[in-house]
Amino acid sequence: MTKLNKHIDELIVRVLSEDCTSEDKRDLNAWLEQSEENSRYYKQMQKVWINSRGLESFRSVDVMSDFNEFKTRVGMQPKVVQLSLKRTIMKIAAVMVPAIMLLAGYSLYQSVPGFGKWQSFATVNDTDEIILIDHSEVTLNTNSSLVYQKDFKGKERRLKLKGEAYFKVAKNPEKPFIVKVGKTEVKVLGTEFNLDENSDGSVYLAVTEGKVLFSANNEKTHVVAGEQAVFKDGTIRKSSLASDNCIAWKTGSIVFENATLSEVLETVLDHFNEVETIVNNSTETNLSMTSRFNNPSLEDVLVELRIHFKKKVEINDNKLIISD
Amino acid sequence: MSEFLNHIYKSTFVILLILLVNTSLNGQNLLYSKVELSSRQGSTQSFLNEIEKQLGVVFSFSNELCFQDYMELETTNGNLRVILDALFVNCPSNYIVEITKSLSSQ
């Protein structure tokens, strides 16, 4: 019966929707004529069919689309917004800039002497001495500065020098003592040496005790006690140390042992700030002098220079002029 | 003294500067100070070194000054001038004594 009803229902729907064949109509009429009950059933179906036409508009409703719109309106669904490149960059920058600033600030804090792990020390008109945490001693010449790690933690003891200083390094074979000056670097384990950086970028190293590794660019050389090395014009030149006069600024002692005129003048230029240049207009001489001084004035040295080299020596506007 | 020294740079003499350092002697009586050497034989340099220690002076000189590796003095006692004359007997040298506080006897 259910199967039959289903068949009749389908037939009725096909006829009511006018989607039927003439055979369907004939079958339906035959079925209606079979009983009054069939006729009543058809009329009910017809009535429902006619009333259902008012709901026709609901058929065109796209439920999913309308539901999505509803969700968007009530904020249930994220808005998909197409961002411009500029806006994207701005968003990235908004995150990155504070992060970079924080990193830069920290880095600056660490690298500025006196705040982070670095400490600085500078001299103006007087020499001064610093004893580092590892008990190394550094004597700074006038107008010089030293930047060094406060605690020497890590695998190395690192320092940066500007000007001139004498280093007496406490021995520690496991922690090299590295001084950077200009374009050069001196690496030691425990020794004594003098470093002097000139305004033209040249660096003079004199070793008074032990051994150091002197490097500049890709060049490296060992310098031992009694030797000196000069970095000038991009290369390192090594020679024997004629005297300890290079550290006269520290010891006060100047010693000339059979020194030639040029050697004496070189020491005068290096030691006395009042002499900025030397003009030697005199003829060559084979004379040499032997003498020693302790904290001499410039005039003390010039007097002997005049006597022993038989030259006229004048100082004029920080210029030392030598003539016959 | 400096004024004087400024004008002697053309001197034909070899000059031995005697610089007063750690001594109570003054320039005038220094050349007459007593010197007593430990030996009659030695080099010029060794005699000068001994005198430096005894009198608290520093000698300053050029390579023109006559130095001998070995010499024998007639006497080991005398004043400084006599001893220096004996050391530089064949050398036309002059002695100039300069008083300065900026020299040491190291």
Number of strands of chain B: 7
What is the gyration radius of chain A calculated from CA atoms? 50 Å
Topology pattern of chain A, helix = H, strand = E: HHHHHEEEEEEEEEEEEEEHEHEEHEE
Secondary structure: helix percent of chain B = 25-40%
**For the residues shown, what is the average pLDDT of chain B?**
81
Tell me the distance between the termini of chain B: 24 Å
Total helices of chain B: the number is: 4
List the helices and strands and how they pair.
The complex is a heterodimer of chains A (324) and B (106).
Chain A: H1 2-16, H2 22-34, H3 36-51, H4 63-74, H5 85-111, E1 118-122, E2 128-131, E3 137-140, E4 145-149, E5 157-162, E6 164-168, E7 177-181, E8 184-188, E9 192-197, E10 203-209, E11 211-216, E12 219-224, E13 227-232, E14 235-240, H6 248-251, E15 253-260, H7 261-271, E16 277-280, E17 288-294, H8 298-309, E18 312-316, E19 319-323
Parallel strand pairs in A: 5-7, 16-19
Antiparallel strand pairs in A: 1-4, 2-3, 3-6, 4-5, 6-9, 7-8, 8-11, 9-10, 10-13, 11-12, 13-14, 15-17, 18-19
Helix pairs in contact in A: 1-2, 1-3, 2-3
Chain B: H1 2-6, E1 14-20, H2 27-30, E2 34-36, E3 41-42, H3 44-55, E4 57-62, E5 71-72, E6 77-79, H4 80-87, E7 93-99
Parallel strand pairs in B: 1-7
Antiparallel strand pairs in B: 1-4, 2-6, 3-5
Folded structure, characterized:
The complex is a heterodimer of chains A (324) and B (106). Chain A has 324 residues and is an alpha+beta fold. Chain A is built from 8 helices and 19 strands. In chain A, the strands form 4 sheets. Chain A has a 7-stranded mixed β-sheet with strand order 1-4-5-7-8-11-12, with no helix packed on it. The mean pLDDT of chain A is 87. Chain B is α+β, with helices and mostly antiparallel strands and 106 residues long. Chain B is built from 4 helices and 7 strands. Chain B has helices spanning 2-6, 27-30, 44-55, 80-87; strands at residues 14-20, 34-36, 41-42, 57-62, 71-72, 77-79, 93-99. In chain B, strands 4-1-7 form a 3-stranded mixed β-sheet. In chain B, strands 2-6 form a two-stranded antiparallel ribbon. The model of chain B is unreliable at 102-106 (pLDDT under 50). Chain A binds chain B through residues 253, 255, 258, 286-297, 299-300, 303-304, 306-313, and chain B through 2, 5-6, 8-11, 15, 17, 19, 21, 58-64, 96, 98, 100, 102-104, 106. Strand 17 (288-294) of chain A pairs antiparallel with strand 4 of chain B, so a sheet runs across the interface.
